[in-house]
């Protein structure tokens, strides 16, 4: 387990009480739940971890991301929250990250937190490859990252990571897989999942329209349709979205991770009948 | 060896323990990315481990910088990795060959603790290195096209390993141009 410094935590309600034990004196019931907010490492009387829940709140305000498992690949779509024209357009993606040649992820939440975890994931994947000379199975990578996230909910007194991930990958044991993980360190394997803003609405829409054995093309169309309905923006333009796919290259049999270029994105939106005229600048 | 907008890298195929030949298809030239190759002579175990560790570092570099490593940068990386083990070195002598900026060929070699030596024409390593120096020096000429480069490097390799009892059992030659990579196996004196 990671080593975290033990930070002595004064009670914010009464600074003179150093590291107050909440189970000691009992204040008025209304104030009671506030006492359990400040530390990640303790349960509330109702059995909840408030800091973890607050982290999930933070993610609920971030740009959404969707993942759909198809028969021949996995599709990840993300909504770019900040699209000011002052923003220097960088080549690299904002929501999608490659972790290894056969693994990628989409993020929703605090980007700086995400960067730390993605670095950790990349290192972990390479260390596995160095030891075993084969690519890391997707679930193992997800599990190790979630173990790290869990550490920040149990010891050290540090806040949890404010990021949810959608991992997409392929390995020889289980083929294409999609996993969703949240700040608590829980993860699950999904056929279709959504994180970020309006994820509940997106998830229920996916539940209705997802069909087993869809192709990647159908999955892309479904993802764009769902996002267009749940996104706040009035017009869906190629520069507000990011699309990435994990699939097997037909010629070489190698697993590929490909991010859709803005032009191809525009064409896909037009094909799905979702383009709307861009607002007058 | 450097040619005109291309390079060639070649090795023999023997793996032996003193007088015992253990394998005749041993891979000594490894790919880092499409335009960068490293040949590692010396202790086989160290060659394989060093290669695996370089792949580790290069993959992380690729993920972070979103591009392949330039040959010059890679050479510096290998040099520093070798020097890290200054007092317990990898028993390997690497040969690095790649196409750099504007597909300009780049070659270099270093000793087992990372002393880099850049060259414009050819670099050699291994038990037959002295023969190789002689053969390359006499056969090499600058700006050879890929086909002629292939002939030259093959002749230099085969004639040198024939003079060395610990090298041989055929050859493996890679010619890399900006557009394609050609791999060839040579049949020499199988002894």
UniProtKB/TrEMBL annotation, chain A:
Residues 1-21 are annotated as: Disordered. Pfam families: Proteasome, Proteasome_A_N. InterPro entries: Ntn_hydrolases_N (IPR029055), Proteasome_alpha (IPR050115), Proteasome_alpha-type (IPR023332), Proteasome_asu_N (IPR000426), Proteasome_sua/b (IPR001353). Residues 36-58 form the Proteasome alpha-type subunits domain. It is found in: Cytoplasm; Nucleus. GO terms for biological process: ubiquitin-dependent protein catabolic process. Residues 1-13 have a biased composition (Pro residues). Keywords: Cytoplasm, Nucleus, Proteasome. GO terms for cellular component: cytoplasm; nucleus; proteasome core complex, alpha-subunit complex. Belongs to the peptidase T1A family. NCBIfam families: PRK03996.1. The 26S proteasome consists of a 20S proteasome core and two 19S regulatory subunits. The 20S proteasome core is composed of 28 subunits that are arranged in four stacked rings, resulting in a barrel-shaped structure. The two end rings are each formed by seven alpha subunits, and the two central rings are each formed by seven beta subunits. The catalytic chamber with the active sites is on the inside of the barrel. The 20S proteasome core is composed of 28 subunits that are arranged in four stacked rings, resulting in a barrel-shaped structure. The two end rings are each formed by seven alpha subunits, and the two central rings are each formed by seven beta subunits. The proteasome is a multicatalytic proteinase complex which is characterized by its ability to cleave peptides with Arg, Phe, Tyr, Leu, and Glu adjacent to the leaving group at neutral or slightly basic pH. The proteasome has an ATP-dependent proteolytic activity. This is Proteasome subunit alpha type. It comes from Aegilops tauschii subsp. strangulata (Goatgrass). The lineage of its organism: Eukaryota, Viridiplantae, Streptophyta, Embryophyta, Tracheophyta.
Automatic annotation (TrEMBL), chain B:
Signal peptide: none annotated. CDD domains: proteasome_beta_type_3 (cd03759). It is found in: Nucleus. The keyword Cytoplasm applies. The 26S proteasome consists of a 20S proteasome core and two 19S regulatory subunits. The 20S proteasome core is composed of 28 subunits that are arranged in four stacked rings, resulting in a barrel-shaped structure. The two end rings are each formed by seven alpha subunits, and the two central rings are each formed by seven beta subunits. The catalytic chamber with the active sites is on the inside of the barrel. InterPro entries: Ntn_hydrolases_N (IPR029055), Proteasome_beta_3 (IPR033811), Proteasome_sua/b (IPR001353), Proteasome_suB-type (IPR023333). This is Proteasome subunit beta. It comes from Aegilops tauschii subsp. strangulata. Keywords: Cytoplasm, Nucleus, Proteasome. Non-catalytic component of the proteasome, a multicatalytic proteinase complex which is characterized by its ability to cleave peptides with Arg, Phe, Tyr, Leu, and Glu adjacent to the leaving group at neutral or slightly basic pH. The proteasome has an ATP-dependent proteolytic activity. GO terms for cellular component: cytoplasm; nucleus; proteasome core complex, beta-subunit complex. It holds the Pfam family Proteasome. GO terms for biological process: proteasome-mediated ubiquitin-dependent protein catabolic process.
